[in-house]
Amino acid sequence: MNIRRDIILPLTELISGTDIIKQYKLLKGSEYWSRDQIENFQNNKLKELFIHCFKNVVYYQRLFKQYGVDIDSKYMYDEIKKLPILTKKDIIKNYNDLISADYKSRRYTTGATGGSTGEPLKFLFDLKTQSAGWASAFRGFEYVGYNLGDKIYTFSGYSLVKNRKVLSKQFVWERLIMNNYKYSSINVNEEKLFYFYNELVKLNPRIIRGYPSSIYVLAKFIKLHSLKSPKIKCIFSTGEVLLNEYKSLIEEVFNTKVYNGYGAGDGGFNSFECKHQKGMHISEENAYIEIVKNDKVCENNQIGDVIVTSLNNYVFPFIRYKVGDMAYIKDALCDCGRNTKLFGEILGRSGKILYTKQGNPVSPTSLDVIIFKGFNDGDEESVAIYNKIEKFHFEQDNKGDLVIKLKLRENKDFHLFDYLVENFSSVFRESQIKIEFVDEIKAMNSGKEDFITSYFNLYE
DSSP labels for 22-66? Predict the structure, then answer.
């Protein structure tokens, strides 16, 4: 008997109202479906979602009428392509009209993107979406031998290691169910890295999980000081692009495989590598994924914008939502026998590490939390100020000084962001910090939305 899976998780679900176990069983049953089964399932889920939106969501009622969407069609793949792409700007502009009329009858919570593409966003999602996401994660972790209860050492930026009060719902989930011990890679130095290494040895976990840039910093530290690593079953990379140089060093130091993962909480999907590592298996039971370039759906192996339709979120439906990353879907399926589509390379979430003038590494995904006043994303004032930002970009020159470029939703209230100088100065000590308010933040020539530019290579 697995106590966490068979006793603690069911009791937690009874109290919280989630249905992770039910969703997990459904996903395990569909794990080796044929392409026809997957596509029939998606088509039926799209039809149910469209009927719900037609009845309950003002934004889609307008669009369905404007673009001639037929909710009675037998083939919803044709109907969905009639709709325009949903952008973050569209969501902000039509926020209230995107909330389902029956949202009060559903159990829901508020979510937010971490700004990992430089564009913050808040949204709603129901417990079914949350449950399906975790069920899909469990299935994905199991692709490479994970078992619920395997001790996890998470070393990462803020979004994965937020502080939780002891015995809070989040703490019970992370510690009692996931057996997950979290450590923040924000503002690390030599002393802290020794501490994190000693904790790793003491915990002796089966799994390491985190942002690849964070794990890379720890691996580089271990190698530099000729330290020994405990025996690790596998390493899960998430939240950033897994650069080849990071993967190589991490696998060398920990003497195990690094498995890549990609997903978006706002889009309600995730994807994971299996042991064959031919690509990341998309959770197609939870989302319909398109790759689009210049308003046209791409062929397989062609890079474009990741467009996702969440099949579960009825409170705040995301239909043809532009996540902000670029990727391609592989032409071939995996050798493992699973017939879900595979993501190839993911672009858009920079893995570039910044360094302070003291040589301390700063993970790119740590930068988002530093934007919050008082480093607090749970404070109403901090969140209100943060939500005034449409887009941001960090530029570090060859001397280590930093320019923070902000594109605001409205060109006013500039004084509210004076605190950023103090926030960033506390991390980038002795660096000059400058704030620039701009009308546009351009993408790179490749179209990639990279929110970091750095010319400070002294410690690389």
Answer: HHHHHHHHHTT--HHHHHHHHHHHHHHHHHHHHHH-HHHHHHHHH
